[in-house]
Write a structure and sequence with these properties.
Elements: E1 2-8, E2 13-21, E3 28-37, H1 42-48, H2 53-72, E4 77-82, H3 84-88, H4 92-103, E5 107-109, H5 112-123, E6 131-137, E7 142-148, E8 151-158, H6 162-166, H7 172-186, E9 193-198, H8 200-209, E10 217-218, H9 219-230, H10 234-239, H11 245-248, H12 251-265, E11 269-271, H13 277-297
Parallel strand pairs: 1-4, 4-5, 6-9, 9-11
Antiparallel strand pairs: 1-2, 2-3, 6-7, 7-8, 10-11
């Protein structure tokens, strides 16, 4: 059985096709195909409020390509979700309707709370005991989830992200709201808070650090990496550091968000599991199928 998840972000659009392996007590997903296309819908939306004609046309072609891949891999079921850029655009709903008409793909435009909830599903196996602050920095929004002994006790989405920052569309008011939230929910905690980071930029920073999966990246090392990358020009980041062009320009503003939040919360290290929204969507899809199967048996 194969499932697919389409994650339509502000910086890139991802398709993951996974096979559900039988014979396990818990669902095990084996990745069989993964495609990431750097469409950057947020570039238009955060600047002009709409998805421009070029990105609009490319998105339609991309959904056609993803539909063909899902057909070729004989995907049994899928879920497609759009986040900050699509929900902020004046023509997002029109684009969703056209995609449904031309490809049959049904896209859900989800809010920040829904996005955080889906990502939380992917984190269940990665959460440590004690206090843990999950930080997910995307192109258009940042989601924070605070856990205590793997139970979520607070959550909030903020209109702050790497592409939004690059376009100088992040407001000082939103930064103040972020600082107030972190202080209100972590300021009185005496125990050590471990940060847990998801998102393409923190995953890239973690791989550049040379750390092995499961190891923690210290705040100091993260700051050193940010400074090291910042000493290189954009061209040098692409040519010398071999960062993808759509990663090379957003990795610094994303780094600043992770570092700032960690400092405000008093986190001295961060865990970086290799999961994201697409993984949470796959788990959500599996749960839906299980619930429907239980109903059908009654």
């Amino acid at each position: 059985m194969k499932f697919a998840a389409i994650d339509i972000g502000s910086n890139a659009v991802r398709l993951q096709i996974s096979a559900l392996l039988n014979g396990h007590l818990v669902p095990v997903y084996k990745k069989v195909e993964y495609v990431r296309f750097p469409l950057r819908l947020g570039q238009d939306v955060f600047d002009r409020g709409v998805i421009g004609p070029e990105a609009y046309a490319k998105f339609l072609k991309l959904m056609e390509a993803y539909k063909l891949l899902m057909d070729l891999f004989e995907v049994e079921d899928y879920v497609a979700c759009a986040t900050s850029a699509m929900r902020s655009s004046d023509n997002g709903q029109a684009l969703v309707a056209e995609v449904a008409r031309t490809t049959g793909i049904r896209i859900q435009i989800i809010d920040g709370d829904q996005e955080a909830a889906f990502i939380s599903l992917a984190l269940m196996d990665s959460l440590p005991e004690g206090y843990c602050l999950h930080i997910d920095v995307g192109g258009g929004s940042t989601e924070l989830n605070l856990y205590l002994n793997r139970a979520k006790i607070a959550a909030r989405s903020f209109a702050l992200g790497s592409v939004r920052n690059l376009n100088k569309k992040d407001s000082a008011q939103e930064w103040d709201l972020l600082e107030d939230w972190v202080d209100a929910h972590t300021g009185e905690i005496d125990d050590k808070i471990v940060a847990l980071g998801t998102g393409g930029n923190i995953s890239k920073l973690f791989s550049m650090s040379g750390k092995k999966p499961g190891q923690r990246l210290s705040l100091r090392k993260l700051q050193e990496l940010r400074s090291f990358i910042g000493r290189h020009s954009l061209d040098e980041r692409i040519q010398k550091l071999q960062l993808n062009p759509d990663r090379a320009d957003v990795i610094l503003p994303a780094s600043d968000l992770y570092l700032t939040i960690m400092r405000w919360a008093g986190c001295t290290s961060i865990l970086v599991p290799n999961v994201g929204l697409k993984d949470g969507l796959l788990r959500h899809l599996y749960r839906q199928r299980q619930d429907q199967a239980a109903i059908d048996k009654k």
